[in-house]
Amino acid sequence: MRIISMFAVIAAWFAFAPVANADVKWESKGWVKLGERDVDGKVDRDVIVVGKHEGKFSKLTLLVDKSDLELLDFEITFGNGQKHNPNVKHVFKEGQRTRVLDLPGDERMIKTIDLKYKNFPGGGKAHVEVWAWKTDGLGAGKPSAALWDNAGWTKLGTRTVGGKVDKDRITVARVKGKFEKMTIVVLDSDLDLIDFEVKFGRGPVWNPNVKHVFKEGQRTRVLDFPGGDRVIKYIDMKYANLPGGGKARVEVWAK
């Protein structure tokens, strides 16, 4: 009985864990790698020189690989000498990356990127890559959407998160039919999903426990509806953009 109980706990954990892209294999199309460094000691400092020839950029993200890393400080110097110090001090696990950082003033030429970080005792040497979204030339446009197999799924609606805390409702027409499961995809920036309710054609409001901070390109686990196939009347969402990030875009899909 104890063994069966253990497997049940593990299965439940996987069922409720958010589904995330493995960030090492993130969709980097349209992004430019500005540089990479290996973290050599307990506390290490590095400077990545970019320059005019790289063009202008509107977003940045840092990718951590090979070992865990504590990012102590991060400073960007633009072409005009202005400095920008986004608040990304954090402990990153191997394979994680920072949220997408919108640069102030939109398109900017970057002169240098200063990094201060350290490895963890007993761990290996972390490897850091700095990527930027190019706004001119072949990279122009918006970062590509999260890639997932949505064959057989129906998009019920899209909303852009407008502020620190925003509430939206997606009304679903009866002609859409019945659905048995749902997922939410987060695009363009990171998102704090505070609350999420589904009102079916019949019965009480359903409130699945999906409160979580989602990285850009992540989506929730697949949510199975109680009672099988259901008509959806509306979906209420409460969420917030993260400080220093852009406006997240949320897509709701059902099957």
Largest sheet: 9 strands, antiparallel
Question: Into which percentage range does the β-strand content fall?
Answer: over 45%
Overall geometry: elongated
Number of strands: 18
Q: Count every helix, treating DSSP H or I runs of 4 or more residues as helices.
A: 1
Distance between the termini: 36 Å
The topology string of helices and strands comes to HEEEEEEEEEEEEEEEEEE
Query: Could you tell me the radius of gyration in angstroms?
Result: 21 Å
How would you state the average pLDDT, rounded? 80
Q: Helix and strand layout, with pairings?
A:
Elements: H1 2-16, E1 31-38, E2 44-49, E3 56-65, E4 69-78, E5 83-84, E6 90-92, E7 101-102, E8 108-119, E9 127-134, E10 154-160, E11 166-171, E12 178-179, E13 181-187, E14 191-200, E15 212-214, E16 223-224, E17 230-241, E18 249-254
Task: Write structural notes for this entry.
With 255 residues, the chain is mainly beta. The chain has one helix at residues 2-16, and strands at 31-38, 44-49, 56-65, 69-78, 83-84, 90-92, 101-102, 108-119, 127-134, 154-160, 166-171, 178-179, 181-187, 191-200, 212-214, 223-224, 230-241, 249-254. Strands 1, 2, 3, 4, 5, 6, 7, 8 and 9 form a 9-stranded antiparallel sheet that branches. The longest helix has 15 residues, at 2-16. The protein is elongated. The model is unreliable at 1-24 and 137-144 (pLDDT under 50).
